[in-house]
Amino acid sequence: MITFFSKIxxxxxxxNNILKYARYxxxxxxLVVIGILxxxxxxNWNEERQTxxxxxxxxxxxxxxxxxxxxxxxxxxxxxxxxxxxxxEVLNALxxxxxxxxxxxxxxxxxxxxxxxxxxxxxxxxxxxxxKVRGTETLIFGDSLKVLLNNFYGAFDLNIERFNQLPKxxxxxxxxxxxxxxxxxxxxGVYENGINSYGEFSPYLRYCILxxxxxxxxxxxxxxSCIVNIDLQKKLKKEVETVISYMENQFDFLHKxx
Length: 258
Prior knowledge:
Blueprint: H1 2-15, H2 18-96, H3 104-114, H4 127-134, H5 143-165, H6 167-180, H7 188-192, H8 203-210, H9 213-250, H10 253-256
Helix pairs in contact: 2-3, 2-9, 3-6, 3-8, 5-9, 6-9
């Protein structure tokens, strides 16, 4: 083998082709390097293209989530406003007592059902939550959008937490207290005084509600919580509208569907 290479080396030396061989070898090396660089560039282009596709996919998903949030918040504002209007009417009726202008059925329905309904101020885990949990929120274009999303969902989660701490419990307490007036034993004295009808139109059911000061206090608390949460939900609505507007201005593909 050594003899073989010695012969090749001697031949190159005899033919004076060493310089040609060196140039050829350098050319081969250069071609390999260029090929590697081109391959790396193509790989980088592909990775960048895949990243852009992912970013667009996430942006569309987040945009869709925000639209859902906006729709739910708008519904919450409407429900809270309706509940407040009913609460205001019931409070006036409870203050009037004997001269109350609501029949027992309406009064019971409003207090025992309409005012005790728990408005679903909540949100499901969404695309932005998933990105943050995986630590991949950096896939989203720019820092401005990240700030807007964090601010909005931070305020939203705080609103949900506050609602679950007190307003939700007040409604549950009101339902429990009103339910006591459907219990015969709680109005036995009234029954013994000659009122023997039972049901939503029952005089003793009406008497039980009107004579229960705790119900009056709870209705007032529900009405107050409606006012506070209507204001909070309106602020959330403005925030989510700001984020949606920013995304529509920032990302043309949201309009083009590309």
